[in-house]
Design a protein that fits this description.
Rossmann fold; alpha/beta; 12 strands; four-stranded antiparallel β-sheet
Length: about 250
């Protein structure tokens, strides 16, 4: 049994079905890329995994280490070791990055982390992501650039060290330099913590820095193709249209 296992998942928003029988699995220490065009259901899957109340699961199951995730509240899923990095991180006025991170870490612990230990860890993780030290004293995401918001999301990933992370379009809104730092940071964090990563993206540019063991293509709420990096390269060259017209298209290694 995989660490995270999704079986025949059907999800509605209102009366409209968005996911139509998704099945996939992910193990700790494994990186899986989930690709697909806009509206394919990638972000819906991410939010369902996190427990967003907007989405209704009508059929199927999600288990994590044998436990039924669908019966858990969002904070219990987080404590279990699931993490979601948002495509559009929210701004939280009045709460500094430092206070937010310390509160999030202590919420998972029975004994609060000492301030000196927290400060040391924060400094190390910020250095990994080449972040300006002054950022931790700013309000969370308020006035941040796209790259700063995404680096702050990955900083949370590094500090919380979950067992499995769902990263929803971490490459969106970032420039080339920020993307390289973020991608290399994700790889380092994953390796250090033997963390499972479900990396949701439109493009394969981030996959130059975060090498997946598998690439899964989601179109119209269904998995239509699974492969390796050659599949991501095929999509970069040919787009998703060929896969939309036929799920039997042959994808050859470069």
């Amino acid at each position: 049994m995989a660490d995270l296992e999704i079986k025949n998942l059907h999800v509605n928003v209102g009366s409209k079905e968005i996911l139509s029988g998704i099945s996939l699995d992910l193990n700790e220490g494994e990186i899986v890329a989930l690709m697909g065009p806009n509206g394919s259901g990638k972000s819906t899957l991410a939010y369902v995994l996190a427990g967003h109340p907007k989405y209704t699961v009508t059929k199927g199951s999600i288990s994590f280490h044998g436990q039924n995730v669908l019966l858990m509240k969002p904070h219990d899923r987080s404590k279990l070791g699931l993490f979601l990095s948002f495509q559009y991180p929210a701004e939280v006025s009045g709460v500094t990055v430092s206070n937010f991170l310390r509160t999030a870490i202590n919420a998972r612990l029975t004994v609060p982390m000492k301030i000196v230990d927290f400060a040391k860890m924060l400094k190390e993780k910020m250095a990994l992501l080449k972040m300006d030290s002054s950022l931790v004293n700013r309000y969370l995401n308020e006035g941040f650039s796209g790259g700063e918001k995404k680096r702050c999301e990955i900083l949370q990933l590094a500090m919380l060290a979950p067992k499995v992370a769902i990263l929803d379009e971490t490459d969106s809104g970032t420039d080339v330099d920020a993307l390289k730092i973020i991608g290399e940071g994700i790889t380092a964090i994953s390796q250090q913590n033997k963390m499972g990563i479900l990396l949701i993206t439109h493009y394969n540019r981030i996959l130059h820095y975060v090498q997946p063991s598998r690439v899964i293509v989601l179109i119209n709420g269904r998995v239509v193709k699974t492969g390796g990096m050659e599949l991501a390269q095929f999509i970069e060259k040919n787009g998703f249209d060929t896969l939309v017209s036929s799920s039997n298209v042959e994808v050859k290694s470069a």
